[in-house]
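Before a colleague's protein record goes any further, I have to sign it off. What it holds is a sequence and that sequence's fold in token form. Would you go through it and say whether the fold makes sense for this chain? The record follows directly below this note.
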Amino acid sequence: MENIEVECPSCSPDEPVPHTILKDAKELLLQCDECRAVHRHKTEKAKKEVPVRVIVSKGEVSFHRNVLLSGRIKTGQELLVDDEATGEANLVEVTSIEVGDKRKESALARNIKTIWARTTDEVTVKIAINYRETTDSIEMKVPGDREYVIGDKINVDNRNVIIVRIKIRNGGFKKRSGVRVYAKYISRIYTEPSVKEPKRISRSGGRIVIKKRESVWSLKSKRAG
């Protein structure tokens, strides 16, 4: 038998729990795996859509829309928010859900007061370029579904750099070569120049840095600090 997670009117009216599907129809006949109670449950298509207020952040600008939604909405979920007056549509990610005077990770659409979201169709990606003694920070607007791959070479502000790690929004770091991350999930990309300045160590312990000056190569010795 198939299983599904939904609210149980007997033991869990607000949070979904595992159920076994006894009969698959327009209204599912379910048995709760927790308390064994049997009840009917409307499928998503049969559920009535209700207008929900959505506040969307797009860069430094925020705007609100009323969106018809049904079923359970969760943080991290993507929604399509459109404006009938202008015809503009945005793909957004739910960042927070307000129910009454509380914030929740998920809630039924009919119980939601306000959804807070951010646009993901176009996002601003912050890129740090790490040199030996300095770090440059650059911001780029890119499509949200653009992929960045650790270990790949990319061009940033006319500079060729290599991605060495990626910080995920509300999460940790990705460092393994070959890992792919969509721009909409990225907090910051850390890079280093694809062509590194070579270095040598002198007998006295100082560092010899080779620099190219026009067409002539010269050696410059620095004492270790």
